């Protein structure tokens, strides 16, 4: 199957530090491709380069058959390459449904004056409410976003990203800061989305990664040391040495 996303030879330097180093990676349509690796391996930098948030020092990104390397974040999002999480797009004083309605509005490219009035339009509210139900926030639809628990805020961000009808969602640590129950709920939600939208998932929670990913790429010092099916990655001695085998060291705070 031809790739939806093709990153080739990506490099990002911060002064003398090479955060991503000749990094190449594909995501096929509908695939959940996880990127794992130790702290500082370059995972967030890669996401920012793919989203168009950080300009690359070298390399190209093709998305859905187009070269997008020189496009900014908004232009890539319009093509369906959308980043969720670690963004502060949620408006805390707006309700859940208003926030999602505004994301629907952004997709439709409509400008109906003030945001609040725009968010009241049925053409925006109806798809917003459907998405909120789907994402499991139905009972919270008319509550202000600031009153949501942490995990629910993350669900809202996911609903807002989905409102833009992405082809590929870039997910940077969706489970960060979540307790076990919230993590399970978010994993279940992402499982529901699998196949409908492709995902590039950066996540430290290995249970979530191995439950969700079709393929896993392992980054170490900005380089991809392995890409493969989850079972092959788990069994790869170089990966175990570089990352998966570091639980004890992690617990000791040495990584
Ligand atoms: N804006 C920046 N300026 C300077 N150095 C940066 C910047 N952003 C990232 N770095 C450095 O680049 C390297 C890669 O960082 P990055 O955040 O991409 O790693 P990561 O794999 O996402 O780590 P983590 O798992 O801890 O989130 C790190 O050494 C980091 O300190």
TrEMBL record:
Signal sequence, start to end: none
UniProt entry keywords in alphabetical sequence: ATP-binding, Nucleotide-binding, Transport
Domain of life: Bacteria
Pfam families, alphabetized: ABC_tran (PF00005), BCA_ABC_TP_C (PF12399)
Single GO MF annotation: ATP hydrolysis activity
Domain ABC transporter: 5-246
KW Nucleotide-binding (keyword) present: yes
A Gene Ontology term for the protein's cellular component: plasma membrane
SUPFAM superfamilies documented for this protein: P-loop containing nucleoside triphosphate hydrolases
PANTHER family: ABC TRANSPORTER ATP-BINDING PROTEIN (PTHR45772:SF2), CONSERVED COMPONENT OF ABC TRANSPORTER FOR NATURAL AMINO ACIDS-RELATED (PTHR45772)
Protein name: ABC transporter ATP-binding protein
Organism from which the protein derives: Aliidongia dinghuensis
């Amino acid at each position: 199957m031809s790739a939806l996303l093709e990153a080739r030879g990506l490099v990002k330097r911060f002064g003398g530090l090479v955060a991503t180093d000749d990094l190449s990676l594909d995501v096929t349509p509908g695939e959940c491709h996880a990127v794992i690796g130790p702290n500082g391996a370059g995972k967030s930098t890669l996401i920012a380069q793919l989203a168009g948030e950080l300009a690359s020092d070298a390399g190209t990104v093709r998305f859905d058959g187009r070269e997008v390397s020189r496009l900014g974040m908004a232009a890539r999002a319009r093509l369906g390459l959308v980043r969720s999480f670690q963004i502060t797009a949620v408006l805390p004083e707006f309700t859940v449904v208003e926030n999602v309605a505004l994301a629907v509005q952004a997709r439709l490219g409509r400008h109906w004056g003030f945001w609040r009035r725009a968010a009241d339009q049925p053409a925006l509210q109806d798809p917003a409410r459907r998405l909120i139900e789907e994402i499991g926030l139905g009972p919270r639809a008319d509550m202000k976003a600031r009153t949501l628990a942490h995990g629910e805020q993350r669900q809202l961000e996911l609903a807002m990203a989905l409102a833009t009808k992405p082809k590929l969602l870039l997910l940077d640590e969706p489970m960060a800061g979540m307790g076990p129950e919230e993590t399970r709920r978010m994993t279940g939600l992402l499982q529901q989305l699998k196949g409908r939208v492709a995902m590039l998932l950066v996540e430290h929670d290995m249970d979530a990664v191995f439950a969700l990913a079709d393929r896993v790429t392992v980054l170490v010092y900005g380089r991809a040391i392995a890409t493969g099916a989850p079972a092959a990655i788990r069994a790869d001695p170089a990966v175990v040495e570089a990352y998966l085998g570091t639980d004890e060291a992690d617990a000791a705070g040495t990584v």
